[in-house]
Structure to design on (250 residues):
């Protein structure tokens, strides 16, 4: 959950602490299987879903789809008590202001320049047990600014800010949140910038197309030493449902 607060700051310019009880109150209430196999046993039975603030026993990550459908709101609006009404903030007549509705998760892999481009364009990057929020250079060495969480990036426990010395030739990967509606295909001839990813505008091959490679303003960054392959693979995380279908109802 900390990454959602950071993403809200990056995209919406709003400083919030996401309300867990808002997500809990908007969670689906029933699990239903459709197209059950013949002779299905009791494990295929429909189930009313109940949650607590501590855990749920349904082996289902409800927070991600709830965040995508309903967004996140500030904990000042909905604090620790699960709200009876979702139309007004607790103790006021003010309506909640959901953020990050419709945002989805993307993933990437690449070198340090790729990581910097992702941070500049999409904001905080999630990795195992850490959230990368920036970088700095000290005495000629790159330092990565990371938030270390107790268990994982979705942890609601305490977390600390640290600076990690980067290795010379690391390979980075992680995930981030973005609004698919904000990004459209760009004109690589007129709209290219130093942070334009190779996924948007492919890098030129240094050996076979040297003139175009030398003219590319990204040749010392994202496209440095490129051999024509895409340096960053951005992929929207999609959930593919096969039969039998598991349906969640709100």
């Amino acid at each position: 959950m900390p990454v959602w607060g950071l993403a809200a700051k990056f995209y919406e310019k709003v400083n919030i602490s996401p309300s867990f009880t808002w997500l809990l109150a908007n969670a689906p209430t029933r699990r239903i299987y459709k197209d059950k196999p013949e002779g299905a046993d009791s494990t295929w039975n429909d189930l009313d879903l109940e949650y607590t603030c501590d855990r749920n026993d349904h082996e289902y990550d409800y927070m991600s789809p709830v965040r995508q459908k309903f967004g996140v709101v500030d904990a000042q609006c909905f604090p620790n008590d699960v709200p009876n009404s979702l139309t007004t903030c607790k103790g006021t007549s003010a309506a909640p202001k959901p953020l990050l509705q419709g945002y989805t998760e993307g993933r990437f892999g690449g070198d340090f320049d790729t990581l910097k481009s992702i941070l500049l364009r999409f904001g905080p990057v999630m990795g195992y047990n850490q959230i990368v929020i920036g970088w700095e250079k000290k005495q000629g060495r790159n330092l990565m600014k990371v938030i270390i969480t107790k268990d994982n990036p979705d942890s609601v426990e305490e977390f600390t800010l640290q600076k990690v010395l980067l290795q010379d030739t690391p390979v980075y990967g992680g995930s981030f949140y973005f609004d698919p509606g904000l990004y459209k295909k760009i004109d690589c001839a007129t709209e290219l910038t130093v942070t334009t990813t190779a996924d948007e505008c492919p890098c030129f091959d240094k050996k076979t197309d040297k003139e175009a490679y030398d003219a590319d303003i990204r040749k010392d960054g994202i496209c440095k030493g490129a051999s024509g392959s895409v340096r960053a693979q951005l992929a929207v995380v999609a959930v593919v449902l096969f039969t039998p279908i598991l349906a969640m109802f709100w």
Observations:
- Helices lie at 2-12, 20-25, 63-70, 112-122, 210-215.
- The chain has two domains: 2-102+245-249, 106-176.
- The first strand starts at residue 30 and ends at 34.
- The chain has a mean pLDDT of 77.
